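2024-03-11 09:14:02 DEBUG pipeline.ingest accepted 1 chain
2024-03-11 09:14:02 DEBUG pipeline.ingest length=181
2024-03-11 09:14:03 DEBUG pipeline.predict start
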Amino acid sequence: MSERNDARAPKKLQEAAAFAALGLLSPGEAMAVPEREIAAMSEAAALLAEGVAPLAPAARVKSRLLAKVANFEQFRPLADVRRNEETWISSGVAGVYVKPLFNEPSTGRSTYLVRMDAGSRFPAHRHGDIEQCLVLEGDIGWGELLYERGDFIVMGKDSQHPEIYTVAGNLLLIVAGQNEI
């Protein structure tokens, strides 16, 4: 390694530690930075903050900031389910799990993920409302029909659905009415 690269390595480490201390790195990125480096940068930031006299923002800056805070509710999503939230619940059928994403009380429509373990089956049922299904991973089938990743299926209101099965397991995105039977 050249001297030039050796000199930049500590600077990059310090920069990463500073970003981690300020909470500006993702958890994965922060894990790559030694804890002692992050602790040192956190301490340095705290000491710097203690030495700075408080300063009131300019009136127009303060009013813009307060307007953004007041408008926060306008931009707040109705649902916010993150990929790392483990909220899977048993459907009551072995090997079939559900992760609720959103429910619209006025229409009774719900959006949720369904995960079926390889080889699992879901009993026959009737749809009291239209059901939309997008196969995100794996496969789903009934009878001779087999749908795979990327396939989209819509079942009509009052349609009878035969027993569903999966060969390799799956992950499904479902939008359906609350009166599934």
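2024-03-11 09:14:41 DEBUG pipeline.report The longest helix spans residues 3-21.
2024-03-11 09:14:41 DEBUG pipeline.predict end
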